[in-house]
Amino acid sequence: MSILVVGSVAYDSVKTPYGSRREALGGSATYFSVAASYFAPVSIVAVVGSDFRSEDQAMLKSHDIDTRGLARVRGKTFRWVGEYGEDINNARTLDTQLNVFADFSPALEPGHSSAPFLFLANIDPELQYQVLQQMQDRPKLVAGDTMNFWIQGKASALAKVVGSVDVLLVNEAEVRQLAGENNLAKAARRILHQGPRMVVVKRGEYGAVGFTPENVFAAPAYPLENVIDPTGAGDTFAGGFMGYLAASGDLTMEGFRRAMIVGSVMASFTVESFGLDRLRSLSTDAIQERYREFWRLTYFDGTGERELPTRHFALQESTSGRDG
Ligand code: AMP
Q1: Which residues are bridge partners to 93 per DSSP?
Q2: For residue range 193-211, what is the model confidence (pLDDT) as tens digits?
Q3: 86-121 confidence digits (pLDDT tens)
Q4: Residue ID of nearest Cα to ligand 1 atom 5
Q5: What gap in Å lies between CA 22 and CA 183, rounded to an integer?
Q6: 69 by DSSP, 3-state: which?
Q7: Which atom of ligand 1 is nearest to the CA of 30?
Q8: SS3 category, 52
């Protein structure tokens, strides 16, 4: 089944402890689409400027990404400048230039408004909502992402988006900021009360945790020795997650858990090189092999019902430190 995504297509200038890149192809919709394209057909809704390079357009085409909804207008493509310090999990934004996104108003192409899977990648929540409203039928699954830039700048538009998605995927700092709550589990619960059926918290090198009203599931990140550039890891995770769900059609809790592992698999490739260098040229063998490695990494027991060989003491429960 096909996926429609709205989000940023950008030129990123990034510095990490391992080097730097200037004006490399990036953007939330770009990472998402390339990752998801390994599993399902993707159509992209975004805008680029007259400076958009033909080789970047060709790269999207080589992944069979439908770019009919990628408008090209006069002006400059979105620019993002970011830097990572020793704490490789958190990007510091040095500059955001919306450029052609400042006046963009998406109009869906024929066929796009009936896509069964919709991903509202990180971009102005007003644009995310405009796309959602143009959908003919409610898609089977709507998921979304955002970041501090929009949480601070467009809180009320974002509240409408959060209230309309089935799954919200956000990083750890953002879930705390969005909920106004420091404890991760409480913050996720608060967001679950606002509408989504599932909140997936992306925690960089610590993996991801999925919260539903009844379940919590943790997926590790692959323990890589060389993390070169984490830019796009979150969008890539979302691409693997949605790509798997669209390809399998499995929207059970089991399916969502597996989708989180597939998200982690795909993100592990993105961080191994600058920009899209690794993600854009994966073989299906490499994806399958890393999925198996994840399975081995997380497997510890065929059944959760095994009794542990614990020792018993006749102890009284402590009452100290309790409230009341
Ligand atoms: P992440 O997966 O969180 O590392 O996303 C990184 C990508 O987000 C980069 O390629 C940027 O171009 C893009 N980006 C950064 N800031 C924004 C923003 N305010 N709106 C949309 N996309 C952004």
Answers
A1: 82
A2: 999 999 999 999 899 999 9
A3: 888 889 999 999 999 999 999 999 899 999 999 999
A4: 232
A5: 37
A6: coil
A7: 10
A8: coil
Neighbours of 263 (CB within 10 A): 30
Residue 27 Cα to ligand 1 middle (Å) = 5
> Distance from the CA of 236 to the center of ligand 1, in angstroms?
11
One-letter identity of residue 295: W
Helix 184-192 with 172-179: angle, nearest 10 deg: 60
Class of domain 3-297: alpha beta
Q: Is 34's C-beta closer than 6 angstroms to any atom of ligand 1? A: no
Kindly report the pTM of this predicted structure.
0.95
> What are the residue ranges spanned by the domains of the chain?
3-297
Asked whether 80 lines ligand 1 (CB < 6 A), one says: yes
Ligand 1 atom closest to the Cα of residue 26 is: 10
Residue nearest atom 6 in ligand 1 by C-alpha distance = 232
Contact 118/36 with Cβ under 8 angstroms?
Answer: no
State what percent of residues in the chain have pLDDT above 90: 90
Give the list of residues 6+ apart from residue 316 with CB closer than 8 angstroms, or none. none
Ligand 1 contact via 2 beta carbon (within 6 Å): no
In this structure, what are the phi and psi dihedrals at residue 197, rounded to the nearest 5 degrees? Answer: -85, -20
**How far is the C-alpha of 209 from the C-alpha of 170, rounded, in Å?**
10
CA 89 to chain centre: 14
